[in-house]
Amino acid sequence: MTDSAASRNRETLRKLAIIALLMFGFGYALVPLYEKICEVTGINNLVKPDEVVNTQVDTSRTIVMEFDANVRGEINWQLIPRERKKRVHPGELVHVVFDLKNASDVPVLAQAIPSYGPQRAGLYVKKLDCFCFTQQEIAAGENRELSVVLVVEPSIPRDVHTVTLSYTMFEIEGAEQRSASIRLAGGKKS
Amino acid sequence: MEAVHEHDHGHDHPSGIMRWVTTTNHKDIGTMYLWFSFTMFLVGGVMALVIRAELFQPGLQVVEPEFFNQMTTLHGLIMVFGAIMPAFVGFANWQIPMMIGAPDMAFPRMNNWSFWLLPPAAMLLVISMFVPGGSAGVGWTLYAPLTVQQGMGMDLVIFAVHILGMSSIMGSINIITTILNMRAPGMTMMKMPLFVWTWLITAYLLIAAMPVLAGAVTMTLTDRHFGTNFFNAAGGGDPVLFQHIFWFFGHPEVYIIAIPAFGVVSQVLPAFSRKPLFGYASMVYATASIAILSFLVWAHHMYTVGMPVEAQLYYMFATMLIAVPTGVKVFNWVATMWKGSLTFETPMLFAIGFLFLFTLGGFTGLVLSLTPVDVQLHDTYYVVAHFHYVMVAGALFSAFAGVYFWLPKWIGKMYDEKLGKLHFWLSIIFFNVTFFVQHFSGLAGMPRRIPDYALQFADFNMISSIGAFGFGLSQLLFLYILVKAIRSGEKAPEKPWEGADTLEWTHLPTPAPYHSFETPPTVK
Fold this sequence. Notes:
The structure holds two protein chains of two kinds.
Chain A: H1 3-41, E1 63-71, E2 77-81, E3 85-88, E4 93-102, E5 108-117, E6 125-130, E7 136-138, E8 143-152, E9 162-171, H2 178-189
Parallel strand pairs in A: 1-9
Antiparallel strand pairs in A: 1-3, 2-4, 4-8, 5-7, 5-9, 6-8
Chain B: H1 2-10, H2 17-22, H3 26-55, H4 65-100, H5 108-116, H6 118-127, H7 152-181, H8 194-225, H9 239-273, H10 280-293, H11 309-337, H12 346-369, H13 371-377, H14 381-411, H15 417-443, H16 458-488, H17 503-506
């Protein structure tokens, strides 16, 4: 092969290698892109306050709201709703309290993620304030009262009579160095 | 590049095992790719048989559920990355330089590296079964958050995917450079055989898609060990994000497997129809449009994750659009055969088998593109039947067609035609026994990736398992045919296939010499 052909090949190699590297970067770029798309289109809007446009209370309808809570991870802690059930009117301001108990001897950084049953009902449950909007740093042995303020939109379909709001409290692992020791300590207990 | 010249004159290449370790010859490397992929095909096949043995009857008889999950994962990964893809890279290595009149690949040393990355990756996959906790039991799609909860077998699988990806990217760069820069004088782009065209397009797909998969598994790795939260809901991540990234790679991957198969069939059908390929230019454009569309339809694999209905509609229509260029190809193949003087030697039989069954797999794909239908059929055996029609009857049959077609050129000896035909008929019958019934169990609601199932699926599963063992054993016949041809095959005539008209048949002796086209031919 002549030198000019070889250098032409090297030039092609260089261009193609750059494309491959760019595509590796593109894989990572999909992460903020995905978040942006979810934010713009309002999908997956779990940890931001909702805007409530209509606060007219529809007393002609009553919806049963059920509250549920779970914790994940290997440490000894609990999240319990004070009321398991509440009858609410669409448009009414509802205040619910959950109790978080850290029975372990280590501090935990935690984040709650809400989910709804039926799933579509989540579109109509507007949270004005929620402990799930922020991370909770809870000290060893601490008990904390966590509250949610929400409105069920009056536009919720007529065939929905019961809405379950369930929180799962996750321990944020690897957020800081100490979380590794948290897991070890928790593992021994359980 | 100098190394190539030294080989040319000196013929001092080492013998024995070192010949294969150090070789930079495209034919040697092609041979190694093909044998490697056949070995992995048998390994992945044994895993499939473990799966089918367990599913022969309801209840748990043969393996533990955890091991069953590892088998479905490794079967998928090994067949896709270890068997089908290297097989077609093997074809590319052997054929592309000969078909465009080039002396070798553009980067012979890199070519050697891209092959020798494969055995370590395969070993990592196999070793992962023997570490504490076993291999990854997550399915070949490696979905988070399950991947985060696996043992160290998962890490071995991730590294294997990294290495396989590197190998594919290096191979693709080599193929593109060879095709763009090393064509013989007169071999314009639109005169290239369709196999070369399909590989050019596939190589671009690989360069664009494989790095994204590398990114996805790297994120999984850092989520597992380095405290990132890409897919961990607690840390602000999202498991659905993994599915988006994975399928951004995964859908083009489907065409990475299918398009070279189209290329092989586009060489075989005209040769045995004794007519030029019908609609050459439209074939090129159809292949290119399939490749571009493949990057725009990924979310049809994940209709059930809760996308807005507008997004579902977009992905549904975009997916159905792919049927148009694919239809162009199928009609062109049929038109190529129309009024041709057909003969039905083994390569032709496999190509026609491909045409029938790939089209059937395409149709079930069209069914699955419909969102409301897919929501019902998602993760059922209907999907399993669909993708085995396009991957086994599609890609694998086309690879068989290619091996029978080019074997005389490669080794200068003929395979046993009677046994070849027997291999075809056994394969096509047992293939359909295995997979046709899976449409029914899928429609009846049998989920995939489960070791046990409800009683009403028992008959279909028994039939499917019998077919699978038949299909697996038939492939040993293929091995026997190959060994027999290499050991004691009849000497091949200079041009065993009357209708073959590409450069390797018209300008090179049979068998092809170790160094071919040192002076480029002139193409009219």
